[in-house]
Amino acid sequence: MLRAVALGALTLGASALSGTVRTRRARAEIGRYGLPGWDRTDCRDAYPGGYEQVADTSGEYVDAPAACFGGTFRGSDFCDGGWHKFGTYDEGGVRADHVAITTACGATRTKNAWRWTTPDGVVYRCSDGYTTYWSTPADSQTYVTICRSEL
Questions:
Q1: FRET pair for 23, CA 20 to 30 Å: which of 34, 40, 93, 98?
Q2: Residue 97 has pLDDT above 70, yes or no
């Protein structure tokens, strides 16, 4: 009898814990190159009243509702595995050097990526980086670029 009561208590305790684990708040993400991501779907410390999302300039979400903010160029073509590309790529005969960066969302904490929710309820990760395009070192141009990937 005692064994049955103890087993029942353990089962109830395990069930309660598993329910707690499933409802736990999201934790900060760590990107592919060890850079921290954001753990919320807003950036209220920097934009308390919200912000105007900016449409993608290229990639698979160019016709989707805007999600990311900032950068000269935004799109899924700056992504590798859901995070900003890192490394050198040949993009149509032009060399592109990509590097993920951390920037501030507010005054104190820097992050590489943020989660943004579009009005239709889709959540995207917006991962920041620099992209330098060049044919020769003398004619290089560097831009802030944003990788947009659906979560």
A1: 34
A2: yes
